[in-house]
Write a structure and sequence with these properties.
The protein has 138 residues and is of the alpha+beta class. It is 28% helix and 30% strand. A four-stranded antiparallel β-sheet has the order 1-8-3-6. Strands 2-7-4-5 form a four-stranded antiparallel β-sheet, with no helix packed on it. The protein is globular and about 45 Å long. Residues 76-81 have low confidence and may be disordered.
Length: 138
């Protein structure tokens, strides 16, 4: 595995479903409020920061994703509203990723219980991080 969730082969299969994109360190992948409910991103290599923006335009890191991870994992279902209105994504290192249509991704994941389990593990890990943050608020 290239990360904790998807294998290198599974990430490469994503190539047949979507477009390969490359971003230099510091490049914005998705601007705040510009998320599409019709696509997700699968990271082949690199590190992506999901960042938030306050009303005074101050940025803060919300979550980091690496090779073999999928984002956004919260709000994946397009029938629900878009909770990502003030959240964006930026390349923390040189990044290669696949931009994949949501429906193609879901068919791909549902075709194999091992892959689906990997996605559930990523979602569970992310909620563990959120829980830790809430538990440690002061």
């Amino acid at each position: 595995m290239i990360a904790r969730y998807l294998t290198r082969k599974e990430v490469q299969i994503s190539q047949t479903m979507g477009r390969l994109r490359r971003y230099n360190k510091g490049e914005v992948i998705v601007a705040p409020g510009k998320w599409s409910k019709k696509r997700i991103y699968i990271i082949q290599d690199g590190l992506v920061a999901i960042f938030g923006q306050t009303s005074t335009r101050k940025q803060f890191i919300h979550m980091l994703y690496g090779s073999g991870e999928v984002f956004p994992v919260t709000g994946l279902n397009p029938q629900y509203g878009n909770p990502l209105t003030q959240i964006g994504a930026i390349a923390e290192t040189y990044v290669t990723l696949y931009e994949v249509p949501y429906t193609s991704f879901m068919h791909f994941m549902q075709a194999d219980t091992v892959r689906l389990t990997a996605l559930f593990r990523q979602v569970a890990d992310q909620f563990t991080i959120y829980t830790y943050r809430v538990d440690n608020l002061q």
